């Protein structure tokens, strides 16, 4: 078996939600120790580590708690795509031959309320903040409304997306939002930015996730059902895409980092969207999930209504999506969110999902995460 192959042999998670005095670093440590235990390894067996956090400290500080073994520990920060970028970085460490066992961890503990950002950090002037567009709910609402108009989608579909998310979250022990809501309740909830209502957005939250990666030479010695990380690809925006904190809009956007990252991941893995048995796509809001389903190739543009309304994205549908409730039910601790997606898909492929298990022994999984200011990371996982 080639050393260039990368497998996930351990997965651990601290439940998402609100956790009082427990710090983000505490949640990261909890997740990392759980992942090591899942892999049957101690910290001394780890050759390198990669971590991500947006507001809750430097992940490499975890060596103070786990052991001062002198390993390389890389910290990344790429907005909501932080977890995906951390995973891709760890994958490269193994494929390059620099390490055989790599730990990946992400965590965050956000305050209540909407995410706040400094325009200067994104190369923008204060005028952009005064326009109101640093409030991301406005951006997502504008993009959703335009997309739905272009592709003839009814805005009630946004309620159906959130209804499925909360139904999946209600039976998942790691999810934050555990109360099912009907489409009617979601559509009639308090408006935030039209057409998106209160329950169509995820909330900043708290949580931690960790994964243990191993080279192909080691994986089957460590895990009964290692999950092959067939691809982990990252792409940034190109000319013509309309992204978070992008102060302009081309007349006919045809590109997005999500399109490019997904296409690259499928090409590297040697499979296509039709082969996917279980998927996670970024659902910062209901509209984003609808858009990302098509941008990643899981369906065609304008086909989302039929796919979702027919139950195609349900756990027992043809393409189960966000089986743990996604960001809508779990909230979004930025450093951990992308890794949560992979954690869920790994457990689905191993047949040990903590919520609703996809039937029929799924063999191919896909994850997609998107972050500001226009960055996407996608993975393909197989057993």
Tell me what the structure shows:
This protein has about 375 residues and is of the alpha/beta class. It has one domain: Thiolase/Chalcone synthase (Peroxisomal Thiolase, Chain A, domain 1, 3-Layer(aba) Sandwich), CATH 3.40.47. The chain contains 13 helices and eleven strands. The protein has a nine-stranded mixed beta sheet. A two-stranded antiparallel ribbon has the order 5-6. Strand 5 (about 190-195) and strand 6 (about 195) form a beta hairpin. Helix 3 packs across helix 13 and helix 6 (about 155-170) packs across helix 10. One of its GO terms (molecular function) is acyltransferase activity, transferring groups other than amino-acyl groups. InterPro entries: Thiolase, Thiolase-like, Thiolase_C_2, Thiolase_N. Keywords: Transferase. This is Acetyl-CoA acetyltransferase. It holds the Pfam family Thiolase_N.
Write the layout of secondary structure elements.
Layout: E1 6-17, H1 24-39, E2 48-52, H2 63-66, E3 73-76, H3 82-95, E4 101-109, H4 126-130, H5 136-151, H6 157-170, H7 183-187, E5 191-193, E6 196-197, E7 206-215, H8 216-222, E8 227-236, H9 257-269, E9 278-280, H10 286-295, H11 304-309, H12 326-330, H13 334-349, E10 364-371, E11 375-382
Parallel strand pairs: 2-3, 2-4, 9-10
Antiparallel strand pairs: 1-7, 1-8, 4-7, 5-6, 8-11, 10-11
Pfam family, one: Thiolase_N
Organism: Gordonia lacunae
Keywords: Transferase
């Amino acid at each position: 078996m080639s050393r260039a192959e990368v497998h996930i042999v351990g997965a651990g998670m601290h439940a998402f939600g609100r956790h009082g005095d427990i710090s983000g670093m505490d949640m990261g440590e909890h997740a990392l120790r759980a992942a090591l235990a899942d892999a049957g390894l101690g910290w001394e067996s780890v050759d390198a580590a990669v971590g991500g956090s947006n507001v809750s400290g430097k992940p490499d500080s975890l060596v103070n708690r786990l052991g001062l073994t002198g390993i390389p520990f890389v910290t990344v920060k790429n907005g909501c795509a932080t977890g995906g970028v951390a995973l891709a970085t760890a994958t490269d460490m193994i494929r390059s031959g620099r390490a055989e066992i790599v730990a990946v961890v992400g965590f965050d503990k956000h305050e209540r309320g909407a995410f706040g950002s400094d325009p200067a950090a994104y190369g923008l002037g204060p005028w952009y903040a005064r326009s109101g567009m640093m409030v991301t709910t406005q951006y997502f609402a504008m993009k959703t409304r335009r997309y739905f108009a272009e592709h003839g989608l009814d805005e009630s579909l946004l309620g159906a997306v959130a209804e499925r998310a909360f139904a999946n979250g209600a039976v998942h022990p790691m999810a934050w939002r555990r109360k099912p809501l009907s489409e009617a309740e979601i559509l009639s909830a308090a408006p935030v930015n039209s057409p998106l209502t209160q329950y169509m957005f995820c909330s900043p939250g708290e949580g931690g996730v960790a994964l243990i990666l191993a080279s192909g030479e080691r994986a089957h010695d460590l895990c009964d059902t290692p999950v092959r990380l067939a691809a982990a690809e990252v792409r940034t925006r190109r000319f013509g895409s309309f992204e978070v904190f992008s102060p302009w809009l081309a007349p006919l956007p045809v590109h997005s980092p999500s399109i490019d990252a997904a296409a690259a991941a499928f090409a590297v893995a040697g499979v296509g969207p039709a082969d996917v048995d279980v998927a996670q796509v970024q659902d910062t809001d209901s509209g984003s999930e609808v858009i990302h389903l098509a941008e990643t190739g899981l369906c065609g543009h304008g086909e989302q209504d039929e796919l979702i309304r027919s139950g195609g994205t349900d756990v027992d549908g043809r393409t189960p999506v966000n089986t743990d409730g996604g960001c809508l039910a779990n909230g979004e601790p930025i450093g951990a969110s992308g890794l949560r997606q992979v954690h869920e898909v790994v457990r689905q492929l191993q047949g040990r999902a903590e919520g609703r298990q996809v039937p029929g022994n799924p063999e191919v999984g896909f994850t997609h995460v998107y972050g500001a200011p226009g960055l996407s990371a996608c993975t393909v996982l197989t057993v």
